[in-house]
Amino acid sequence: MNSQKLKVGIVGLGTVGGGLYDISKNNKEFEIVKVLNRSREKYKIHNIKSHQIASNLEELLNSVDIVVETVGGVEFATEVVKNALKFGKHVVTANKALIAKDGVELLKLAKNVEKFLLFGASVGGGMPVFRNLKYHSIGRISRVYGVLNATSNFVLSKVMEGMKIKDAVYLAQSEGYTESDPTDDLSGKDAARKLAIICAFITGSLPKVESIPTTSLNVDEEVVKFIEKMEMVLKPLVYMEPRNKGVELWVGPAAISRNSRIGLTEGTENCLIVEGENGINSISGVGAGKNPTAFAIMADIISIVRGEASEFNFNQVPLNILKSKFESVGNVKIFRSSR
Ligand SMILES: NC(=O)c1ccc[n+]([C@@H]2O[C@H](COP(=O)([O-])OP(=O)(O)OC[C@H]3O[C@@H](n4cnc5c(N)ncnc54)[C@H](OP(=O)(O)O)[C@@H]3O)[C@@H](O)[C@H]2O)c1
User: Fold this and answer.
1) Which is nearest to 257 in space by CA: 327, 336, 333, 141?
2) Is the domain of 111 the same as that of 133?
3) C-alpha–C-alpha distance, residues 291 and 300, integer Å
4) Cα dihedral: 162, 165, 168, 170 (round 10)
5) Ligand 1, CB within 6 Å, residue ranges
6) How do residues 102-143 score in pLDDT, each as one tens digit?
7) Most CB contacts within 10 A, which of 148, 245, 285, 316?
8) Domain boundary at 85, 118, 151, which?
9) Local structure of residue 260 (DSSP, 8 states)
10) 152 and 188 share a domain?
11) Could you tell me the residue range of the domain that residue 77 belongs to?
12) What strands, in cross-sheet order, belong to the sheet with 30-36?
C-alpha cells in the first residue's frame, strides 16, 4: 500500500457524490482534496472547507490522482471523464448512461493513457456484478437474467397486489423509491443501459441501448390475474442469452415462478442470475441509493489505491448456446425458470 494517501476529486456532489464524500471523511487510504459542484448549496450541506472547493474542472484535475465523476447525464460527464484521462488521472464513475453510450471509446482512451476507468457502481449499485462475472468463473455462460431496477420492481409488486400502475408509481415516488423523473426507470431504458454494459462486459460488443427490445410496465388487469393463477409473479426482467447468430437481449415485464430467486426479489434488492455449464451463480444486493452506490465507488477507488485494480475491459467470456422458449401473454413474456 502507498505510504502517501492518493488524492481524490469528486465532480458532482449530489446523492452519490455527496454520499461518497460523507463516508470517505475518516478513511485512512485516500483523501478527498477537491470537489466541484454546480450549486454552492451542496458545499454547505456537506460542510466542505473553502480550500477543498475547486473553482473549475481544470483546477480539480490539477490537484488529484483519481477523479470521481458523479454528475450524471452524458454531456458534462463526457467532458469530465475524457479530460481527466487526458490529464493522466484514473477515473471512477457510476454513470451507466455514459458507459452504455461511449464505454468502448472511453476504455480505449484509458488504455492509451495507461489509467484505470472503473465503473463497478454503474450496474447494480452495491452489487458486485463485474467482480462476480470476472472472478467467479462458471465456465461458458449460457444465460444472464435478473432484476436491475428497483423502481419498476416496486411498481410491479404493487400491481400484483391489485394496484393500478399510476397509483403504484405515485406510491413509489412518495416512499422515495424513484428519482424525481422516473421515466427511464418505467420505460425500461435504465435497465437496458445496464444490460448493454453487462453484454459488453461478457461478449466484448456494446449494443446500442435503443436497439435492445424494451417493453414498458404497461400491463393490463386480465394478464395480472392470469399470471397469479399460474402462481407466478411479474418482474421487470433484463435478459441475455447467446443464440447461434448473436445474442438475444430484452428488457420488460416477465412472469416468473413466485418462489424462484428472482420471484422473491423485493423492494430495493436487485438480483442477477448467471447460468453456465458449471452451474448457477446468483448475485444480489441493494441495487441503488446513496450508500450502496457510494460504497461501490469507494471499492473501485480502494482497488486503485492498493494497486489491485485491473484493466476493466469489455472482455470475451465464453458463451454456451441454450434453446430457451418463451410463451407470451399480452406484452408479458412467460419465463418458466425452476429456480
Ligand atoms: N442515485 C442512485 O441511487 C444511483 C445509483 C447508481 C448509479 N447512479 C449514478 O450516479 C450518478 C449520479 O447520480 P445522483 O443520483 O447522485 O445524481 P444527483 O443527485 O442529481 O447529483 C448530481 C450532482 O451533480 C451536480 N452537477 C450536475 N451538473 C453539473 C455540472 N455541469 N457541473 C458541476 N456539477 C454538476 C449537481 O449539482 P446541483 O447541486 O446543481 O444539482 C448534483 O449535485 C448518475 O450517473 C447516476 O446514474 C446513481
Assistant:
1) 336
2) no
3) 14
4) -150
5) 12-17, 36-39, 42, 70-72, 76, 94-96, 121, 125, 288-289, 293
6) 999 999 999 999 999 999 999 988 888 988 887 655 678 889
7) 148
8) 118
9) S
10) yes
11) 6-118
12) 30-36, 6-11, 66-69, 90-93, 117-118
